[in-house]
Inverse folding.
């Protein structure tokens, strides 16, 4: 006999939930396709409950936590044939079309979320900082490295530090005028939160690039920049999510470049000269 799916388990346990947990159950049963893309904070807001209630709800279903719950929702959604009007035929051409669609959607969603005032605040922090350290975990660290690499073409103050221990080591010697840029799609990674908490304790300014405006990390950062593209638990580090973060990076880069065009152009020329003998 097949194990009951997550929605069946919610139905079976419904009258064992507390009144607050039933509010969560009602919302999940009605919007399970959307819930798999939400943060715990976002779901709590939608249900009008506390994050602790969401955690208790997940444990009531014999799950370790919210991420395990989202994984069960994603499994259930994957088992249902898609009826989406965007569904492409299961052919090579159809898969190419699907890649194009999701990439374009990631760009459009991010552009809609970009707040020019926040971009300007972040760039002003970059301008006044002697050093800017870009950090992240897993796939987000790849994007942090790309950010540092792109900005290194116009300024020498940007660097990327990948190891979580070395991130804290670097932060310990930073000046309060320095800036830490954290890339975290969820805004809820342990190492990212530790870095932001430590930076806050030392007065170091921080910029966060994340999907969720009300994530735990967003509560600690001085500037929050949101990226688009939904990412399911089956797609950690998905390409559309990376594209969304790259759009934010390029927006920051263009603003910084145009505000510091003379020095940027000088650095671009110096770098071009230094690399001239590296090409055939």
């Amino acid at each position: 006999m097949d194990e009951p799916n997550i929605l069946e388990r919610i139905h079976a346990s419904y009258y064992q939930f507390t009144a607050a947990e039933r509010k969560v159950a009602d919302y999940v049963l009605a919007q399970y396709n959307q819930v798999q893309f939400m943060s715990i904070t976002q779901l709590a807001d939608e249900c009008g409950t506390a994050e602790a209630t969401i955690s208790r709800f997940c444990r009531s279903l014999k799950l370790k936590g919210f991420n395990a719950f989202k994984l069960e929702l994603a499994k259930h959604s994957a088992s249902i044939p898609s009826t989406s009007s965007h569904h492409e035929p299961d052919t090579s051409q159809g898969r190419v079309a699907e890649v194009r669609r999701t990439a374009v959607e990631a760009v459009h969603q991010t552009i809609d979320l970009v707040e020019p005032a926040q971009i300007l605040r972040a760039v002003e922090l970059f301008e006044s900082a002697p050093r800017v350290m870009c950090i992240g975990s897993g796939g987000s660290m790849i994007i942090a490295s790309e950010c540092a690499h792109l900005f290194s073409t116009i300024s020498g103050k940007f660097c990327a530090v990948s190891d979580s221990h070395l991130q804290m080591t670097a932060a310990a010697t930073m000046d309060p005028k320095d800036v830490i840029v954290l890339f975290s799609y969820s805004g809820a990674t342990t190492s990212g939160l530790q870095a932001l908490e430590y930076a806050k304790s030392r007065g170091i300014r921080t910029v966060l690039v994340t999907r969720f405006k009300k994530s735990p990390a967003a509560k600690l950062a001085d500037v929050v920049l949101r990226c688009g593209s939904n990412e399911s638990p089956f797609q950690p580090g998905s390409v559309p999510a990376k594209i969304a973060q790259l759009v934010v990076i390029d927006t920051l880069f263009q603003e910084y470049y145009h505000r510091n065009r003379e020095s940027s152009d000088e650095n671009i020329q110096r770098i071009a000269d230094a690399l001239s003998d590296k090409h055939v």
Summary: The chain has two domains: 6-78, 103-278. Residues 187 and 217 are 5 Å apart (CA to CA). Residues 103-278 form a domain with the Rossmann fold fold (CATH 3.40.50.10490). The chain has a mean pLDDT of 89.
